[in-house]
Specification:
By secondary structure, this protein is an alpha/beta fold. It contains 7 helices and 9 strands. It has a 7-stranded mixed sheet with strand order 3-2-1-4-5-9-8, with helices on both faces.
């Protein structure tokens, strides 16, 4: 019997939520640069907000922020910090990124950082990007990041898989091993061209795409795309 991908994703991230929170506190510079470029009056959605490491800076800079995640335990961590800090302009929502609970043209900006690549199935990833496009206001922007397929750590693996793969090329299970855990997490690692085409296919105009190296020495391990919704 095949496991429901959403249930599987929620169970995985609930299992590692506390460990993830301990090890993922510092926001990324690319995200802070994007957040500080937004207007103070903007409404922001953080799609796949995790423990809120980018959600809280977004709320501090903008008028309001929504945090969306599949993991109830990660959202519980965020909710605890909201109460602890007495923050009034953050709303958290338990939801699937392929079905965002917002009206069309509702938000000014979107963060989707290291989340899209955890969605199983090409159609589901496209649906998530399509949903982000739908809820953005015309001229609204989004910053998305994904892991690179051809980074140093996995380059040899995917070179071999190119000739023998049976699932979607780029799919891989990567185990979370912090704090004595051993929990496989689904990833779809992107080529740069695949990331670009996926964003353009769902209507976005790409304003900038950046290769980033956090752990790799030679090849980028992340791609960041700044996109805009332009209605002609």
């Amino acid at each position: 019997m095949q496991t429901d991908p959403l249930y599987e994703a929620q169970r995985t991230w609930d299992t590692i939520a506390e460990s993830f929170d301990i090890t993922r506190r510092a926001p990324w510079k690319q995200c802070i640069d994007y957040i500080t470029s937004l207007k103070k009056t903007d409404v922001v959605v953080d799609c796949g907000c995790g423990n809120g490491r980018h959600l809280f800076p977004a709320a501090a800079h903008c008028s309001s922020a929504f945090g969306i995640d599949i993991s109830k335990k990660l959202l519980s961590i965020v909710q605890h910090r909201i109460a602890e800090k007495n923050i009034r302009n953050i709303t958290i929502v338990h939801a699937d990124l392929a079905h965002l609970p917002f009206q069309d043209n509702y938000v000014d900006a979107i963060l989707c950082i290291a989340s899209l690549h955890n969605i199983k199935g090409r159609e589901n990833r496209h649906a998530a990007v399509r949903e982000m496009y739908r809820i953005l206001k015309p001229q609204g922007t989004a910053l998305l990041s994904v892991w690179s397929r051809w980074q140093d750590r996995y380059r040899a693996y995917f070179t071999k898989q190119f000739f023998v793969h049976s699932s979607e090329f780029g799919d891989i299970d990567i185990c979370w091993r912090q704090h004595h855990l051993n929990v496989p997490r689904f990833y779809h690692l992107y080529s740069r061209n695949e990331f670009v085409h996926e964003l353009r296919d769902e209507g976005f105009t790409i304003e900038n795409i950046e290769d980033a190296r956090f752990h790799s020495k030679r090849f980028p391990d992340n791609y960041f795309a700044l996109v805009r919704k332009i209605i002609s």
